[in-house]
Amino acid sequence: MPNRKRARRSAGLLLFRQSGEAGLEVLIGHMGGPFWAGRESAAWSVPKGEYDSEEEPAAAARREFAEEFGHPVPDGEWVALGEARQSGGKTVTVWALEADLDAATAVPGTFTMEWPRGSGVLREFPEVDRFAWCTPREAAERLVAGQRVFLDRLREHLADGQGTPGREGA
User: Fold this and answer.
1) Nearest of 17, 19, 26 to residue 143 by alpha carbon
2) What is the DSSP letter of 165?
3) DSSP calls for 26-76
4) How far is residue 168's CA from residue 89's CA, in Å, rounded to a whole number?
5) Can you tell me the distance from the alpha carbon of 98 to that of 73, in angstroms, rounded to the nearest whole number?
6) pLDDT tens digit sequence for 155-170
7) Are 16 and 97 contacting, i.e. CB atoms less than 8 angstroms apart?
8) Distance between alpha carbon 147 and the CA centroid of its chain, in Å?
9) How many CA atoms lie within 13 A of 64 on its CB side?
10) Residue 25 contacts residue 19 (beta carbons within 8 Å)
11) How far apart are CA 117 and CA 64, in angstroms?
């Protein structure tokens, strides 16, 4: 019997706001842990996380936002931004939600790993070490490459004036 890898899937929520001077801004998080320390370019992510076949993607997006940001998802209409496959093979599904949260109030969850590798020492790191509101241009420079498509899809949605977004995932 062939050894089949489980398809890796993640779901996330991209918050956006319309700011006076900056215009459109999105909330993204800098990935925590030693691998990402000191990196800025391609070291940020939409708040997201993996889920299995027993969980609906929208429920996973809601759970992961709460775990990574440390606060529940704000009320509002969810905009489906679709799926994208990242270079590592993971398929990511993202929704957008218009909301204005204070990035400084984030209380991210943590994970434990051996660090330094091979040392036998387990250390705890934040899943996301900081959040920031960024213009789409700034976010495109910071986000991992496979997630940049969601910025384009959000801008297209807003430019098209597609009316009231559906309640999918809300």
Assistant:
1) 26
2) P
3) EEEEEEPSTTTTT--TT-EE-SEEEE-TTS-HHHHHHHHHHHHHSSPPPSS
4) 25
5) 11
6) 999 998 754 343 334 3
7) yes
8) 8
9) 28
10) yes
11) 27
